[in-house]
Amino acid sequence: MLEAQDIGVSYPVAGGARTVVDGLSLRLARGEIGCLLGRSGCGKTTVLRAVAGFEPLQAGEVRLDGRVLSSPGRTLPPEQRGVGMMFQDYALFPHLDVAGNVGFGLSRMPRRERRTRVAEVLELVGLPDRADAWPHELSGGQQQRVALARALAPSPALLLLDEPFSNLDIDTREHLAAELRAILRRTGTTALLVTHDQAEAFAMADAIGVMEQGRILQWADAATLYAAPADPFVAGFIGRGRVLPAASLGLAGSGQVLLRPDRLVPDRQGSLRAEVLAVSFRGPGRVAVLRLGDGALVEVDLPADMAPAPGAVLALRLRDEGLVRFG
Ligand SMILES: Nc1ncnc2c1ncn2[C@@H]1O[C@H](COP(=O)(O)OP(=O)(O)OP(=O)(O)O)[C@@H](O)[C@H]1O
């Protein structure tokens, strides 16, 4: 099991230190796939680097299967952690063929065993026939698979993945995300993934931590993040929708509500009025941007047979059962 408890990481900057990870905790059970999701600069990569042993901790502790890997003043070197890595700049060694790349971390293994293990992981990532190929002969997606095979070959207790698909086109990315999840499941590998791409997080992870400014705001599965966001930032960040004052929707109370695009339904009997600003086809229906009476802008999904013109005024009904409210 991976446990990070109240960890803090700072970088030295002119005239002091800048805290980039601030009291962050997470826990991954063995075989579980976790994901840190957040905007660029929120500290995701720094967390991975700290777990990998490339950044010292100023506070807290990182443990893997009960063993302390990092605490302030004590950083076990990366190669002694039993942690595999596949980072953004996953570049393969150009002077080694595929088998050489995949076997790189197995230098202590007898040659015969190493060859068997290399064949095994190449089979696992769907490249059983490419052991003799050179990196430059492979497509981006194939290189990515080789990098994954290289990371999996030593059977790490934990695999760290930093934006593993960022260099690939979207089709390859979606395909590989599903495949990678299946491979991690099959091998029972515990993994921590970092991405700013929600679709990737949803496709891969059992548990997702939404990060903002060095902290995890909520750690939960995708469905929970969507249906029961813990705070307005998570609500606005996950899925489509807007956080609005309750009053904008004619609701009592001074707090805010999360309005998903399916919550406002065109209905002649409805009590809300909104002006249509823009309509676009999204298939099978359309999406409209509307301006409510108090000026708030919202996005609403329209049925396929509705195509109002900009400037039209729509009557709407709020589906308010189970509406998420804050404050
Ligand atoms: N070596 C460093 N020295 C000083 N500041 C750093 C260093 N590395 C990262 N930072 C800063 O720390 C903050 C967090 O960076 P980090 O790379 O962890 O974020 P991230 O969420 O992974 O972003 P991205 O998705 O862009 O990689 C950023 O503001 C970054 O500029």
Structural write-up:
The protein is an alpha+beta fold. It folds into three domains: 1-82 and 162-239, Rossmann fold (3-Layer(aba) Sandwich), CATH 3.40.50; 95-155, no CATH class; 244-326, OB fold (Dihydrolipoamide Acetyltransferase, E2P) (Beta Barrel). It has eight helices and 19 strands. It has helices at 44-52, 98-102, 111-124, 140-152, 170-187, 198-204, 222-227, 232-237; strands at residues 2-13, 16-28, 33-37, 59-64, 67-71, 74-75, 83-86, 158-162, 191-195, 207-212, 215-220, 242-245, 256-259, 264-266, 272-281, 286-292, 297-302, 313-318, 325-326. Strand 10 and strand 11 (215-220) form a beta hairpin. Helix 3 (111-124) packs across helix 4 (140-152) and helix 5 packs parallel to helix 6 (198-204). 35% of the residues are buried. The mean pLDDT is 92. It binds adenosine-5'-triphosphate. Residues 2-238 form the ABC transporter domain.
